[in-house]
Amino acid sequence: MPGIRLALLCLGLAFTGHALAAVSPEQAARLGKDLTPLGAQAAGNSDGSIPGWDPGMTPIPDDFQPGSNRYIDPYADESPLYTVDGGNWREHTEVLTAGSQAMFEKLGAAGFAMHVYPSKRSHSAPQWFYSNTKKNAVNARLVADGQKIEGNLPGTPFPLPQSALEVLWNHMIRYAEPSSQDYDVYYVDSNGKPVLSTTASSAMIYPMYETPDKEVGDTAWLKLRINYKAPARRAGEILLVHEPGADYSAGQGRRAWQYLTGQRRVRLAPAVAFDTPNPAVAGTSTYDDAFIFNGSPERFDWQLIGKREMIVPYSNYDFIFAYDVETLLGERFLKPEYIRWEKHRVWVIEGTLKEGQRHLYGKRRLYIDEDSWSAVAGETYDTRGNLWRVQFNYGARLYDGHASAGANGVYDLLQDIYNLNGKPKPGKYSPGFDRSDQYFTPKGMARGGIR
Question: What is the pTM of this model?
Answer without folding.
Answer: 0.95
